[in-house]
């Protein structure tokens, strides 16, 4: 009696519209909203995605598998993304593409010096910019050949993820009684506000960061940020 074998799974086909087919992307990002943006960009590009929301979580992922691409946010809850980039760039079995991302490009020079192959400025909404950043950074021997799709398509992440981020950072803000936590809140909100295209919140976060760094009073900044967050959580601000 003949044995019936299931067909082997087909290898992902790289096309102009799905140039990242077969690749795995690990995004190290504490914002659910920004992570959702990367998920949509990967989905439309043909890539698989995994997410780590901290340096510790990234280490667990990397202990088990090696992605083709890693996208590292520079500000994370348990440390700087620069440290992870530096370690990855020096590794013996180096990940092919290391990209840094942030809502502020002031840390990008340091990221490249640490070993990043490229940078992605938030908001991450342009499909063309995302694909080009990955493809341009790929080593030539594994870079897909052929024409690239010229697309002006943008993506829009689920706003439920944005509300989750607002609620998360509002909880942290209630216990922000040390400089390190305040700096993290300011950094997180700058990136989130830029991704959500929320200029009022971005200005408030920048003011908080500036006054915190120069040792000035931050009481009014904290109150302003807390009030803006509460408006957005309660839905009184339409973004």
From TrEMBL:
Keywords assigned by UniProt, alphabetized: Phosphoprotein
CDD domains: REC
Residues that bear 4-aspartylphosphate: 73
Domain Response regulatory as annotated: residue spans: 24-137
Annotated Gene3D superfamilies: 3.40.50.2300
Pfam families: Response_reg
GO biological process: phosphorelay signal transduction system
Name of protein: Response regulator
